[in-house]
Amino acid sequence: MTLRIAVTGWTGQVVQAMLERVPVGVEVIALRRPELDLADHPTIAPALRAARPDVIVNAAAYTAVDQAESEPDLAMRVNGGAAGEAARAAALLGVPMIQLSTDYVFDGKLDRPYREDDATGPISAYGASKLAGERAVAAATANHAILRTAWIYSPFGKNFVKTMLRLAETRDEIGVVADQRGCPTSALDIADAVFAVAHNLVSQPQDVALRGVFHMSAAGEAVWADVAEAIFAERERLGGPPVLVKRISTADYPTPAQRPANSRLDCSKLAQIHCFSLPWWRSSLGSCVERLVKDGW
Fold first, then answer.
1. Distances from the Cα of 60 to the Cαs of 137, 162, 256, in angstroms?
2. Across the strands, what pairs with 173?
3. What is the DSSP string of 62-115?
4. Does residue 28 sit in helix, strand or coil?
């Protein structure tokens, strides 16, 4: 029997990763505009119903973190309201819902990795909209798994890895923030985790422990400057010229939206309940950089 997964979005990093990493026995139906438009709520339920899914994954989102500060209503409509609409559709269809969320639901002030039961407190419009989405999903259906992840990169779309490689083409020194700590996470690893969680939810429909909030990021931790240095080290190994990373503070690189200083996530619950752990960030990052460099992205 084929497991049918309807996933919102098409061009996003996680959706592209899911389409590349589809396991045997799984079919991914990627729903995109205009058939499904998260900003146009009446399109959501009909599109999901037509997909005849066994699981719904809400991976699409308004992800322009800085732009959300000037478009908070749109961010809330897409990340908050649309998530609730998708969850209500899942409830009516009698299927599980997987909601992808973010470390930005926290304020970043803890001095340890965040656990699922730690108090939320977003410090940006984007974070507030994603937290609203979590709450809307939980209110609409008990049959859900909310997966919080962080610092996503991949061979697809726009992300930190591609930005660093692009800057390295014209610079031999790049300033990178060194006082924000988190877990750089490959979208390809996220895709593998989503498939594992989806299988568990469908195969064990009565297991309440499999439902709820889970943290899902790469093993290990780093500051952004560490990530940049790892990117340039891999690029140099592949024949590129050296690039020096100048460690700067968040205050040296002001942005419209505040970022949590601590984005580390404790993922032990996911490992214990869903029996899935993501790889060490450095190994997945190296694979991504090598792929991009060799493909001449």
1. 14, 20, 22
2. 244
3. ---TTGGGT-HHHHIIIIIIHHHHHHHHHHHHT--EEEEEEGGGS-S--SSPBP
4. strand
Q: Closest Cα partner for 164 from 103, 237, 244, 102?
A: 244
- Between CA 56 and CA 29 the distance in angstroms is 10
Query: Which residues of the chain have a pLDDT value below 50?
Result: none
Chain position carrying tokens 């752990």: 277
Residue of 146, 113, 138, 108 whose CA lies nearest to 124: 108
**Which residues are tagged catalytic?**
126
Helix H or strand E segment including 5:
strand 3-8
Domains of the chain: 3-154+185-217+264-279 (3.40.50.720)
Q: Residue 27 in 3-state DSSP?
A: strand
Per-residue pLDDT reduced to its tens digit, 22-62: 999 999 999 999 999 999 999 999 999 999 999 999 999 99
Considering Cα of 179, then 13, then 197, then 34, what sign does the dihedral take?
A: positive
